[in-house]
């Protein structure tokens, strides 16, 4: 059981929200489709389980960053489809900017010689 978690990468708090918003920027998706898109686009590294995904979706919907509606899928099942709102697009731009700053800061700590050379 422990082996299952050895290669697991824990997402920083808030990162899942940004990934969901980014994925929805490409178009509306249901929960499973979101999870698959994140997994596929991360080269199978990031696997979002339902215990993390659905609370994040509900939180984002409550904040009006995404909107959801019930639709009927191709196999005739009711499914909840999520889409990005204009408020969500604005939030995504802000999150991406913060993510870029955070990435640069971490890179500076991991390789200080490189960041000093850039100054």
Task: Write up this protein.
The protein is an alpha+beta fold. The chain has one domain: Winged helix-like DNA-binding domain superfamily/Winged helix DNA-binding domain (Arc Repressor Mutant, subunit A, Orthogonal Bundle), CATH 1.10.10. It has helices at 3-6, 15-25, 31-41, 50-62, 86-110, 112-118, and strands at 29-30, 66-72, 78-84. It has a 3-stranded antiparallel β-sheet with strand order 1-3-2. Strand 2 (66-72) and strand 3 form a beta hairpin. Helix 2 crosses helix 5 and helix 5 (86-110) crosses helix 6. It is elongated and about 60 Å long.
Keywords, separated by commas or semicolons:
119 residues; 6 helices; 3 strands; elongated; Arc Repressor Mutant, subunit A; alpha+beta
- SS-based structural class? alpha+beta
Major sheet: arrangement of strands: 1-3-2
User: If classified by CATH, what would the architecture be?
Assistant: Orthogonal Bundle
Mean model confidence by pLDDT: 88
- Shape descriptor reads elongated
CATH class equals: Mainly Alpha
Quote the beta fraction: 5-15%
Ends distance: 46 Å
């Amino acid at each position: 059981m422990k082996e299952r978690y050895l290669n697991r990468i824990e997402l920083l708090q808030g990162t899942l929200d940004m990934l969901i918003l980014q994925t929805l920027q490409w178009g509306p998706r249901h929960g499973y489709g979101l999870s698959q898109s994140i997994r596929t686009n991360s080269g199978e590294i990031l696997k979002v389980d339902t215990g993390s995904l659905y609370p994040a979706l509900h939180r984002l919907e409550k904040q009006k960053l995404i909107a959801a509606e019930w639709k009927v899928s191709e196999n005739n099942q009711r499914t909840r489809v999520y889409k990005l709102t204009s408020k969500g697009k604005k939030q995504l731009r802000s999150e991406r900017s913060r993510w870029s700053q955070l990435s640069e800061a971490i890179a500076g700590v991991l390789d200080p010689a490189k960041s000093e050379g850039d100054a």
